[in-house]
Amino acid sequence: MRVWAIANQKGGVGKTTTTLALGRTLAARGLRVLLVDLDPHASLTRAFGVAAEPSPAGVADLFASPPASLVELMRPSAVEGIDYVCAQTSLATLERRSISQPGLGLALSQALSRHAGHDYILLDCPPMLGLLVVNALAAADRLVVPTQCEPLALHGLEGMRRTGTMIERSRRRPLPTAILPTLFDRRTRAGRATLAQLQTQYRDQAWNQAIPIDTLISNAEVLAAQSFGDSRLPGRALPAYDRALDWLLASERTLERAA
């Protein structure tokens, strides 16, 4: 079982879309995938059609005493091979609870250590540093950072890399980082310049292509609910995510051989 944290400390870079798209492409290859929504805004959860009220069972229950198991919390999706765990707005209170409840920073790691049945678990993280991101990075085998191809996004990327390095030192095992350029508009000079800077500055950590802007998947519900009738991936973004997955899996094998 492999755990990938999909995270960036900047919002609007395509984290939820990336989580869903990578989940779909992994499932299309016959792998069992679990998507975990760690964001109190619950965009991934809403994409699967789960209403905010009444509050569903979900990630917050992993932090209860005693904690629930992922098996109890996960739901099957309309996409074959993909299950998911909901987020709840109550996740926003965890920071306050952590003051009086030591050990919450490892709750997700503990839940994952007791889980089996999926080949990949993708963690859709909130866009701010806090207890939930710390949990995700402590549990992850890999950090995937979707980065919008525009100049301001580079600041969020640097912040995320520093956080990853800090967690890596704390947990005393590697946390490889993969940078995935997203929302690329080749028509704009800023987009082309930012992509070139990403690929030059971060070299092997950054994918040498980019996920283009694609209105087909601008609504995440399409990725969560629609089944495609043949092997062709519609639009421009999903085939790009399929190529990005090839890169991620190849680099993962390289890391495993080097370990």
Instruction: Kindly report the average pLDDT value.
Output: 91
Q: Would you tell me which CATH topology applies? A: Rossmann fold
**Unreliable spans:** none
Number of strands: 7
Widest sheet: strand ordering = 3-4-2-5-1-6-7
Please report the distance between the alpha carbons of the first and last residues.
17 Å
Sequence of secondary-structure elements: EHEHHEEHHEHEHEHHH
* The CATH homologous superfamily: P-loop containing nucleotide triphosphate hydrolases
Based on CA atoms alone, the radius of gyration comes out at 17 Å
- Total helices: the number is 10
Helical coverage, percent range: 40-55%
- According to CATH, what is the class? Alpha Beta
Number of domains: 1
Topology (SSEs and partners):
Elements: E1 2-6, H1 15-28, E2 33-37, H2 43-47, H3 70-73, E3 75-76, E4 82-85, H4 94-100, H5 107-113, E5 120-124, H6 131-139, E6 142-148, H7 153-171, E7 177-182, H8 189-201, H9 220-225, H10 237-258
Parallel strand pairs: 1-5, 1-6, 2-4, 2-5, 6-7
Antiparallel strand pairs: 3-4
Helix pairs in contact: 1-10, 5-6
Describe this structure as you would to a colleague:
This protein has one domain: P-loop containing nucleotide triphosphate hydrolases (Rossmann fold), CATH 3.40.50.300. Helices cover 41% and strands 13% of the residues. The protein contains ten helices and seven strands. It has a seven-stranded mixed beta sheet with strand order 3-4-2-5-1-6-7, sandwiched between helices. A hairpin with a 5-residue loop joins β3 and β4 (82-85). The mean pLDDT is 91.
